[in-house]
Amino acid sequence: MIPRIMSTQHPDNYSIPFFASSPVLGGDDEITEAFYAFSVLGADEQMWDFEGKEVDEFVVKKLLERYSMFFKKVILGKDVRITPRVPNPSVEKAEAKLLIETLQGITRAADYAKVFYEDDIAPIFEVILPMTTSLAEIERVYMLYKRIVELANEVIYDVTVREWIGDFYPKEIGVIPLFETKVALLKSAKIVKDYISRRRNIEYMRVFFARSDPAMNYGLISAVTYVKKALYEMFKVEDSLSIPIYPIIGVGGPPFRGGMRPDNVENVVREYPSVQTYTIQSSFKYDHPTKEVVKAVEFVKSTKRREPHFVDIPDFIQLYEVEYQRQIKILAPHIRRVVTRIPDRRRRKLHIGLFGYSRRIGDMALPRAIKFTASLYSIGIPPELLALNALSDKQLDIVSEYYKNVYEDLEFAMRFFSFKVAESVGLKELVERIKEFKPEINEEYVSEAEQVFRGQGDVIKLAQIRGFLG
């Protein structure tokens, strides 16, 4: 059974989970979180993020030890699963060797499960490879794991590793490429087609499409366009090869990052009908009543995949991106000023790499996607609205033919827009364009956001009003 719901560790929540020992989640709290996601919320899968966060490498052992009654009934590796996100050595040189440690940990987790279940059950049998840009990167991870398994045949002094330490299991793993840039998204179908063609015995393939980093890089409209184009092309590959391909989409709470909130799951499923697995991030899990979260998860799990929407990338998207980048440069110093007030919610490692980790536009550095989004919302300039002045009504109608929720998403963001702040930073064209929509503004929110812009105000109060941190 391929999961419909993947719980992740993205720190986009303003509320502190009831089980947390600290506002900054990490360590044993994340073990508890995984159990909570499985046992209460109904998630099928927990992403375990070795790429970016300080996480516990003994997650399988601790889950089986602490929650043995639950996992005797719900089999870890069959009914639910842990899926690590590993470092990509092509990008993260400082963390490259952690890839080897993580892959070795898969065999150790299988040993724990064998003792617990008295059977050869692999609780971990897939890994997510971030920032994938080529076939070679996927093949390297696959082959590296195969080499680790083959170590069992090596002779150490007078015995084989198998005789001395034991066998290595599972014999192979699935590598889930995570595509995050425009080029990678638009190349993803070819990369996956080539990979499947090389692995003729493959039963199925999972692929992962980012939504936050493309939005941060290229703007909301471009991000949705590229992701939906990638989904459409991937569906064509699946059809041509007759091999099931199961897309995962990384969606967060604000429309800018996918709009995945308990009260909006129907729209998300309608927007991305060919997706098999939807992420539920921290805000989804902790910023809403548990009953609503469970109901939303149950709804998604009750639905089935359908064909994706046809997408032909409009020419005007390029002009939209140019205007988006121009407005980001204007806003960059204000983002950097406000981001220091956005609270941390997870223990993180320092990253230097793609836009999603650290980015410089001229001499302006920008934060990661969640704090980027939170900073802009906190000063009354929701990022969904940036560069809207570059699109005419007719062009927006063209976009709405494939981006089904575009007007609803823009309407949501406009409630939190401050004309005063936007005008003061030099976004006059954007102000005039948004006035044409005659939005219903949340005056309480905007008043507080204008205080934040002046160096006062309460960023958590604003997050509570809109329903997410970033």
Describe the 3D structure.
With 470 residues, this protein is an alpha/beta fold. The protein has two domains: 5-302, Phosphoenolpyruvate-binding domains (TIM Barrel); 317-466, no CATH class. 48% of the residues lie in helices and 10% in strands. It is built from 20 helices and twelve strands. The chain has helices at residues 28-41, 59-66, 68-73, 96-117, 135-150, 161-165, 182-198, 212-218, 220-241, 265-271, 282-286, 290-302, 317-339, 369-378, 393-400, 406-414, 419-424, 428-435, 443-453, 459-466; strands at residues 5-7, 45-49, 81-85, 126-129, 155-156, 159-160, 174-179, 205-210, 245-250, 277-280, 359-361, 364-366. The strands form three sheets. Strands 3-2-1-10-9-8-7-4 form an eight-stranded parallel beta sheet. A two-stranded antiparallel ribbon has the order 5-6. β7 (174-179), α7 and β8 form a beta-alpha-beta unit. α2 (59-66) runs parallel beside α4 and α19 packs antiparallel against α20 (459-466). The radius of gyration is 22 Å and the shape is globular. The protein starts with a strand and ends with a helix. The model is unreliable at 350-357 (pLDDT under 50).
